[in-house]
Amino acid sequence: MNEKTETGQQSRKEAIEAQAKLRRERAAEKLRENLGRRKQQVRARRSGQADETNGLPAAKMDES
């Protein structure tokens, strides 16, 4: 292989690794947010307060 091809493959590999790292960081952030919401729900249930969820509107029960 020539030097140009090796450099191109290396930079492509680095770009893929950078994208994978960003994906892992986003997933970790979403997991932390989800854990925080779940802990808040548990605390609310213990104290007898209603859950203050931000879930999907279709998942909520209609009060009629």
UniProtKB/TrEMBL annotation:
<feature type="compositionally biased region" description="Basic residues">
    <location>
        <begin position="37"/>
        <end position="46"/>
    </location>
</feature>
<feature type="region of interest" description="Disordered">
    <location>
        <begin position="1"/>
        <end position="64"/>
    </location>
</feature>
<feature type="compositionally biased region" description="Basic and acidic residues">
    <location>
        <begin position="1"/>
        <end position="36"/>
    </location>
</feature>
<protein>
    <recommendedName>
        <fullName>DUF4169 family protein</fullName>
    </recommendedName>
</protein>
